[in-house]
Amino acid sequence: MAKYTVQPGDTLGKIATKFLGNASRYMEIAKANNMENPNALSVGQELEIPGEASDDQPTPAAPVSVGVSPVPPAEFVVITALQLKDILTNATDEHIEKYTPALNAEMQKYEVHSPIRVAHFIAQIAHESGSFRYSSENLNYSAGALRAVFGKYFPSDELAEAYARQPEKIANRVYASRMGNGDEASGEGWKFRGRGLIQLTGKENYTNCGNAIGKDLLSDPDQLATDPYAAVAASLWFWNSRSLNTHADNDDVNTVTRRINGGLNGLDDRVSYLNKAKAVLGIA
């Protein structure tokens, strides 16, 4: 087991990249050194590095085929379960523990690595997923709700009553013949309904996202609801496809929200999460 002395500017993610080839393996170093908080590093602190890698022979990083740099810069932020709990105060411990490793493994691939980018990304997925509690779209609408939310597709009370409280039937009508889906009878509206931490919707998005993250989402779309790594990766693919790192860098929560939501729905809740994330990550 190699030893390493912490230098100014080091983070555990940066050290993991140097010795183990991937920032997402930071927890192996934390565990080897009995560290409860991976961000609590002190200059001059001596760390034991698990495995046989040495300072002279760092393990090469695994290739990442997402179109951005696989190696995070020095400011790469490792977010802990305790920090997430402080941001997502309504989340359960089970959901926090479920998504923390996936977030740290996947965010660096899409360069969501600085405090301000992490704060904006976490704020948006916290709102979109109800504090990590929901990974699949709830379409169990009453007739009144269908008229209010999807009035374009349910122009009469009679039609709304015929679909009320039937999520699969609702999805097949609302999402028919758009976003790459077939007609209502194809069933693709339900098959490719919103899933993941940012509700990915539509066959076209599932196809493009699956190709980018290396998952067959066409034959197994439920991966986005059951696999935390797929759910996070899909959310980051969507984030990257809208060039949201740039707007996060500008601290422009309105534009980030519009590009995710299409409007400013839930803005107050998103800003609340963002302010908590900034406080936790030390952003003035």
Largest sheet: 2 strands, antiparallel
Order of helices and strands: EHHEHHHHHHHHHHHHH
What strand line-up does the widest sheet have? 1-2
Helix content: 40-55%
Helix/strand structural class? mainly alpha
Number of helices: 15
Q: Could you please say which CATH topology of the largest domain applies here?
A: Lysozyme
Average per-residue pLDDT, rounded, comes to 88
Q: Total strand count, please?
A: 2
Principal-axis shape equals elongated
The CATH architecture term of the largest domain is Orthogonal Bundle
Q: Low-confidence runs (pLDDT<50, min 5 residues)?
A: 53-74
Task: Give the CATH level 1 class of the largest domain.
Answer: Mainly Alpha
Rg over CA atoms, rounded to whole Å, is 21 Å
Total of domains:
3
Q: Indicate the proportion of strand residues.
A: under 5%
Intertermini distance: 39 Å
Protein described:
By secondary structure, the protein is mostly helical. The protein is 48% helix and 3% strand. The protein has three domains: 2-49, LysM domain (Membrane-bound Lytic Murein Transglycosylase D, Chain A); 81-134 and 226-281, Lysozyme (Orthogonal Bundle); 143-220, no CATH class. It has helices at 12-20, 26-32, 81-87, 93-107, 115-128, 143-149, 157-163, 167-174, 188-191, 203-213, 223-226, 228-241, 244-249, 253-261, 267-281; strands spanning 2-5, 46-49. The protein is elongated, with a radius of gyration of 21 Å. Mean pLDDT is 88; it is low at 53-74.
